[in-house]
Write a structure and sequence with these properties.
The complex is a heterodimer of chains A (246) and B (328). Chain A has 12 helices and no strands. Chain A is mainly alpha-helical and 246 residues long. With 328 residues, chain B is α/β, with parallel strands linked by helices. Chain B folds into 2 domains: 232 residues, P-loop containing nucleotide triphosphate hydrolases (Rossmann fold), CATH 3.40.50.300; 84 residues, 2-Layer Sandwich (Alpha-Beta Plaits), CATH 3.30.70.260. The longest helix of chain B is centred in the middle third of the chain and has 16 residues.
Chain lengths: 246, 328
């Protein structure tokens, strides 16, 4: 957490980027006669983007930062397994990422008087917790790739925008072409985000069981994939000596 | 035959090759040898030095022993534990320090770096808190422990590295060129500290480029070149083992390449090196018998203004240079 607090990138990700997205979203979606369901994408979308950015990029880049600062070898050779260290780092990033909702909700409420009057608090909380779990799984699965695969950083930057679109952070995924919806369906956050937005409106469909189940199922697959990746990467790193900055 | 001691570190036939890719379009895989089958046995409480030129295999050896690298073949045991299959148990009982300024969280304070690593070593706070305070005091970081590492001098960073390496009170400590880049006073303080740790019973595996450092503090040393051990013994025995019985140092204003070539051709001379010292050049000749060489030396240097001529016993550096020059 201390490393997050002192990172300028983390401040940008929780404060400035979400605020910009929220302002733009609210201008677009809060016109006269706009219904509440659409407004939810502007009120929560910026915060979700910031939350995702910090989990995905900051959590992922922490390994690259370790490599740059020469600490990757140090943390690799301690008794605590690497995946536990990464898990701790990503948990710290997620906690930090929650801050993204402060500026976005403040802007929505104070600047645009935008509210979500039909929020189902219980379903919203469950959906948000499941979303956090899926973010955690994605970040934990992706970060070990940084220990060996140096293409991971540019790939990660490229996929960041793809995730925004495919998961429906700021608009309903049903607006996407069928093939893109298919690709989005393979991403665990897509289902949790759908559940979050559904919990803010009394208009259906309300298939929470399916959405939560899909998120948890995909998250479990990611975790199994992560366990395999950590074993593979730990062995490969010890063979190639690729932990130090070349 | 049974051994008189159970080694703290035991290495048998250790081999390691690295692969890298050459070329952009026509890519070819190239292999180079890191270690070519080394054997070592280090006693508990011994301060062992591994010397060698860059790329000789020192860091590869340390990285295998600290579980960061896997060997291709051979065996390596630390405190009786296999570094390949018992990594977690090995990691709990060893400490390591790599030279240089990197390897610390520069944006965190020194004390927070130590607290974080204490957590990673799973040291309970009731143990880690007093130990961190003790290490900060002992390593001369008291009063600066709450400053960010980015404002530390190189010497302070290296002392913080050592504090990190000692956090888990390791039985075996690996130090990979720990005094590299330090000023003479800082390097001397660190050497004294390392000697103190060895005297307190810790087994220390040190790699260094500095011969005087190994000569001053190591109980035993090995010289490594091209991945193979070329000599092993106490600093005194290594010095005795080489052919040089003496060294002549001649300080001159300047010497030309022709005369240097003449000196190198003398049959009694095993090696000649030239170093700059202020406005003079110092020619160092390693030879069998300095007294027999003096007349020939006088003839070759005739006409050159000699500032100083002296003869001395060979140092470990002289022995090292001969060993490195002579081994394949």
């Amino acid at each position: 957490m201390r490393l997050r607090v002192v990172s300028p990138f983390a401040v940008l990700a929780w404060l400035f980027f979400p605020a910009i997205f929220t302002v733009v979203g609210l201008y677009v979606l809060s016109g006269p006669g706009t219904a509440t369901p659409q407004l939810a994408y502007a009120i929560l979308g910026g915060g979700l983007l910031g939350y995702w950015d910090i989990a995905y990029l900051d959590g992922g880049m922490s390994i690259q930062n370790e490599r740059w600062s020469g600490t990757l070898e140090q943390i690799f050779a301690v008794p605590t397994p690497l995946w536990v260290i990464i898990l701790g780092k990503v948990c710290g990033s997620l906690l930090w990422g929650l801050l993204s909702f402060l500026p976005t909700i403040a802007i929505a409420y104070l600047g645009f008087h935008a509210l979500l009057p039909h929020v189902d608090a219980a379903r919203f909380t469950i959906s948000f917790a499941i979303l956090s779990l899926s973010f955690l799984a994605v970040a934990v699965m992706l970060t070990p790739l940084f220990t060996l695969w140096r293409w991971a950083l540019p790939m990660l930057n490229g996929f960041e925008m793809g995730f925004y679109i495919l998961c429906g952070f700021m608009f309903p995924v049903t607006l996407l072409p069928t093939w893109a919806q298919g690709a989005g369906a393979l991403l665990a956050p897509t289902w949790a985000i759908r559940a979050i937005y559904a919990s803010t409106t009394n208009q259906g469909p309300h298939d929470f069981g399916i959405w939560w189940g899909a998120t948890v199922g995909l998250t479990v697959i990611y975790v199994i994939g992560a366990l395999f990746l950590y074993r593979l990467i730990e062995r490969r790193a010890r063979i190639s000596g690729g932990l130090a900055l070349a | 035959m049974s051994r008189p001691f159970a080694p703290a570190i035991e290495v048998t036939g250790l081999r390691k090759t690295y692969s890298n890719v050459r070329g952009t379009f026509r890519r070819t895989k190239v292999q180079h040898i890191g270690l070519s089958g080394i054997d070592l046995a280090i006693k508990p409480g011994e301060l062992f030095g591994l010397l060698g030129p860059n790329g000789a295999g020192k860091t590869t050896t340390v990285k295998i022993l600290t579980t960061l690298l896997l060997p291709d073949s051979g065996k390596a045991h630390v405190l009786g534990l296999d570094v390949v299959s018992q990594t977690s148990a090995v990691r709990r009982r060893i400490g390591f320090v790599f030279g240089g300024e990197r390897g610390l969280y520069w944006r965190l304070s020194g004390i927070n770096n130590l607290r974080y690593f204490a957590d990673l070593y799973r040291i309970p706070p009731s143990v880690s808190r007093p130990r961190i305070a003790q290490l900060i005091e002992r390593l001369g970081l008291a009063g600066r422990e709450h400053d960010k590492v980015e404002v530390y001098s190189r010497g302070m960073k290296q002392r913080l590295h050592l504090a990190r390496g000692l956090l888990n009170d390791p039985e075996v400590l690996f130090l990979d060129e720990p005094t590299i880049g330090l000023d003479p006073v800082g390097a001397r303080e660190l050497r004294l500290l390392v000697r103190e740790l060895a005297d307190a019973g810790k087994t220390i595996f040190l790699t260094t480029h500095y011969m005087f450092e190994a000569d001053a503090i190591c109980d035993r040393i090995a010289v490594i070149k091209n991945g193979g051990i070329v000599a092993e013994g106490t600093p005194t025995s290594i010095k005795r083992s080489v052919e040089n019985k003496g060294v002549i140092e001649v300080e001159v204003e300047a010497i030309g390449p022709e005369r240097l070539a003449q000196l190198r051709r003398l049959p009694e001379v095993t090696s000649v090196s030239v170093t700059e010292r202020e406005l003079a050049q110092v020619i160092t000749l390693r030879c069998g018998s300095p007294s027999e060489l003096m007349p020939q030396l006088g003839a070759i240097l005739e006409g050159i203004q000699l500032q100083k001529v002296s003869s001395r016993e060979p140092t470990l550096e002289d022995a090292y240079i001969q060993l490195i020059a002579e081994s394949p």
